[in-house]
Amino acid sequence: MQQLHCLSSRTEDRQWIANRDTVQPLLDSLLHLEGLAQNGCSEDPAQKELCFATLDDAFPTGPTPCVSTRILSGLAKNRALDMTFLTLSWHEMKDYELNHHHYSAVVDACAKASQWMKAVHFFSVMTQMKQRLDIINFSAAISACEK
Prior knowledge:
Blueprint: H1 11-18, H2 20-41, H3 46-58, H4 65-77, H5 81-94, H6 100-112, H7 116-128, H8 135-146
Helix pairs in contact: 2-3, 2-4, 3-5, 4-6, 5-6, 6-7, 6-8, 7-8
């Protein structure tokens, strides 16, 4: 079992994070929805509802910030830009905690999807929201502009 380092205060969340087999099915479900969007279903308003329902089922009481970062990073790694933005929107709608790591994962998703204009725009939104920016955020934004 892969051991991950996370500053979670809830024992159950630390166990959940450490169990890679639990994270992957959720990512697979979200990536499947992303695939439907890329195959011409992106105009379907049900995509947002399906994404939100999938996340609601996985996190009835909400994910910890560390779990959220892991999910957003996994979506970014797979270039699932639409699902990354929908997942972030779900967090905002539910008023779950978001921090600079989450926003950096979104900028990274933009970079990996070769959407540098979206990355720069989102980076500017981060500064307007007074998010704490660090070297990871700046690197993600610069990387997006390189590609």
